[in-house]
Design a protein that fits this description.
Elements: H1 13-40, H2 47-56, H3 61-81, H4 89-108, H5 112-118
Helix pairs in contact: 1-2, 1-3
């Protein structure tokens, strides 16, 4: 089943309006960040040059809006195809232990010299 078939591919007017507002907010924040950096340089950049630079890099409010819509569609697909998938603290702990702790424990448990050779000492924290 596809998102379109399930009626989850399209956005309501309210959803689009919200995504457009978010896109504009993100665009303006990016523009301001670049403008501030431009002002700190000795190149004498203009506002138009900053806007042109962002457009050349593909940073427009429309591009950000399209990316936000794509992200929302991915989120909807995950919800649709994996509705009962819940990540619990216990699942994370078991995964971490199996992927990281157990291999290290098996490798270094009875070989302190190997551990000291392969694992750099931690820097002291204050």
């Amino acid at each position: 089943m596809k998102l379109r078939d399930a009626g989850k591919n399209d956005f309501t007017g309210e959803e689009e309006e919200s995504l457009r507002a978010t896109a504009m907010s993100q665009y303006e924040a990016m523009w301001q960040g670049i403008w501030q950096r431009a002002q700190q340089s000795d190149q004498g950049f203009t506002e138009d040059q900053v806007t042109e630079f962002m457009q050349e890099q593909g940073y427009t409010s429309e591009a950000i809006f399209e990316e936000l819509k794509a992200n929302e569609r991915r989120h909807r697909a995950v919800e649709m195809f994996c509705p009962s998938m819940t990540l619990t603290e216990d699942m994370v702990e078991k995964y971490y232990e199996a992927q990281f702790l157990l291999p290290d424990r098996q490798r270094y448990e009875n070989d302190l010299d190997l551990y000291e050779q392969e694992v750099p000492p931690r820097a002291p924290t204050s």
